[in-house]
Amino acid sequence: MMAVMTAAVLHGPGDIRLERRDGPEPGPGEVLIRIRACGVCGTDAALYRGEYPARVPVVIGHEFSGEVAAVGGGVTSFRAGARVTVDPNVVCHACDYCRGGHEHLCENVSSMGVHRDGADADYCVMPAGNVYPLPDSVSFEAAAFCEPLACAVHGLDLAQVRLGDTVLVLGAGGMGNLIAQCARNAGADRVVVSEPIAMRRQKALENGATDALDPTDQDVEEEIRRLTRIGADVVIEAAGNPAAQASCPSLVRKGGTVVWFGVAPQDRTVEVSPFRINEDELRVLGSYNNQFATGRAIRLLAEGRVRVDNLISHRLELRDYREVFRLFGGRDTLKLMVTMGG
């Protein structure tokens, strides 16, 4: 019998509604998940502000974990009660990008909370191939970090951090904190974060960053050259701030790598010097989504190599979801976590 559930539904910019609706049922090859925890990310905020396109109305949210409630026909890899998380992006496996090994760039991708109903609800349905089992050592809240951590892992793969490198991370919100920890795991000797909010700088230092700069009070270019003389080996912009993105080429050494990780508004542009890019032989990359890195993210959490417990600043129940975007981005906030009953 189909259950009635509560869901946070995005109807358009600034229009989030808590609705009671019939819960989904799993079809062939699908898994029905009872959601336990769902994190809020910058993409959710961009959707709410109308800065990122969505197929509305849609249940928002995509960073989550839960328990298998039921499975559809043909699913033998999961049973009711199993603890799970997901890769929230369903790809076609047929377009040129999928067939070329770049499934995360799929032309027909259907992403939770954007194109298909997401996880700020009591239940959701996903194809079994997108579902990953969780070890008992990883809590539901920690597992809700698997999706953003998988994206951070992909960003570090693109950056090609080497043993002994200096990595500069611009922005130490939840995502920047994860990226900084991944940089240390990738072998960086020095990880510097630049972040205007003191609480976020402190969390980054607690989690392994070697240095923390306040860009409102310090000249970041001057400080990074004081620390390294020639500039960082890798600069990762994690805030989606066009001004910070434009500054990246001045912060990296010759032959270094810049990764634009943060999601900037669609209509914004930045100016960079093509002469500088050419003369200094810089690599400037975008990092989008995750390329089948969910399993690696789970292992990093299970092995205690990435810490997330101190990144949760606020916990809200689903019934209070409309408070999310009042709190998001505040000076006392880091990761907002929406919890469901049980």
Task: Walk me through what this model shows.
The longest helix is centred in the middle third of the chain and has 14 residues, at 146-159. Helix 4 (146-159) packs across helix 5 (174-185). The chain has 342 residues and is α/β, with parallel strands linked by helices. The chain is globular. Helix content is 25%, strand content 28%. The strands form four sheets. Strands 3, 5, 6, 9, 10, 17 and 18 form a seven-stranded mixed beta sheet that branches. The protein has a six-stranded parallel beta sheet with strand order 13-12-11-14-15-16, with helices on both faces. The chain has a three-stranded antiparallel beta sheet with strand order 2-1-4, with no helix packed on it. It has helices spanning 42-49, 96-99, 140-143, 146-159, 174-185, 198-206, 220-228, 242-247, 274-279, 294-302, 324-327, and strands spanning 4-12, 15-22, 30-39, 58-59, 63-71, 83-86, 89-90, 110-111, 123-127, 131-133, 166-170, 190-194, 211-213, 232-237, 252-260, 283-286, 312-317, 335-339. Helix 9 links the parallel strand 15 (252-260) and strand 16 (283-286). The protein has two domains: 4-145 and 308-339, Medium-chain alcohol dehydrogenases, catalytic domain (Quinone Oxidoreductase, Chain A, domain 1, Alpha-Beta Complex); 152-286, Rossmann fold, CATH 3.40.50. The mean pLDDT is 96. It starts with a strand and ends with a strand. It has eleven helices and 18 strands.
